[in-house]
Specification:
300 residues, alpha/beta
Length: 300
């Protein structure tokens, strides 16, 4: 994308979006939740996938058809789940059907997930570079959308962020402290998109909030890139064990009352994020929409 196109997408995304990450649910539930989130004023809705579970481009298509304005994005599309030409083609078709409303985040997943799917884990940086080559080679095989879609990399470390700067339209890191956002902006430069994913836990009791945060597997899965990135920021091994020390949880998760959650979002924006996507963990999509509607008035 050109610098002007990136700037236009910044405006479409707005400063705050959400991530709907609840596992399998009927299509009608996704339609209703997407409509409610759009009506609440969020600029974008991001969603994920699992190999053998929800397929992200099908999911995005359902929600694009159920909404009118909001940007829909993959956070992320797993490059191990499909051939790069298929990724490029799927994104092109959706972007052609819904001009200016698609963003594509691409990620390399983690070793355990890849090996469970029967594939062999290889160097994430080399794998991503080759995959982007394949996507580029497939441009034109499907309709070229009138409004291009941004390609963002799930880039945590400096090498992947530099690749995002050189070969993509920006980066989409998740579950990182504010200081990581500041470093990511420095590495990307001013002309790339920086979308930051944050988990919000609406709980004022510190012990309950941190216990909920530690249910995440981001710091406990073997080969977790999140652990490696936090080490690069100076967090010691003992602080990263057992789901993270109180300091780590406080830095990586957004918990508290509505005002505290809004402040943490603003902290990331002040550190250089263009857009902060709030993820909430609830048992179903209706509950997610309830919580996001409650948070919307206090977010920047």
């Amino acid at each position: 994308m050109t610098v002007a196109a990136v700037e236009e997408m910044r405006g479409r995304l707005g400063r705050v979006g959400t991530a709907l990450l609840t596992p399998i649910a009927p299509a009608d539930d996704w339609r209703r939740a997407a409509h409610r989130v759009e009506q609440a004023g969020y600029g974008a809705i991001w969603t994920n996938e699992a190999i053998g579970g929800r397929e992200v481009f099908a999911q995005l298509g359902v929600m694009l058809a159920a909404t009118e304005r909001v940007v829909l994005g993959s956070a992320v599309a797993n490059l191990w789940a499909r051939h790069p030409a298929t990724m490029q083609g799927a994104a092109s078709v959706l972007a052609d059907a819904h001009p200016g409303r698609l963003a594509v985040g691409v990620g390399v997943s983690m070793p355990a997930s890849v090996e469970q799917s029967g594939q062999k884990w290889t160097s994430p940086l080399n794998r991503m570079r080759e995959y982007l080559d394949g996507m580029d080679a497939a441009i034109g095989a499907a309709p070229v959308p009138e409004v291009p879609f941004p390609r963002l990399l799930a880039a945590l470390g400096p090498k992947m962020q530099r690749l995002a700067r050189d070969r993509a339209d920006g980066a989409l890191p998740a579950a990182m402290p504010v200081e990581h956002t500041r470093l990511a902006r420095e590495r990307l430069g001013p002309d790339k998109l920086l979308v930051v994913m944050q988990t919000a836990i609406l709980e004022t009791d510190p012990e309950k909030a941190r216990a909920a945060a530690r249910q995440s597997q981001l710091l406990t899965l073997p080969g977790s890139p999140y652990v490696r990135s936090l080490k690069e920021l100076g967090y010691p091994d003992e602080a990263l064990a057992g789901g993270g020390s109180d300091e780590v949880v406080n830095a990586c998760f957004n918990w508290g009352d509505e005002a505290a959650i809004g402040k943490k979002v603003q902290d990331h924006l002040d550190a250089g994020a263009d857009h902060v996507a709030i993820a909430v963990f609830t048992p179903d999509l209706a509950s997610s929409a309830d919580l996001l509607e409650r948070l919307a008035p206090v977010l920047p």
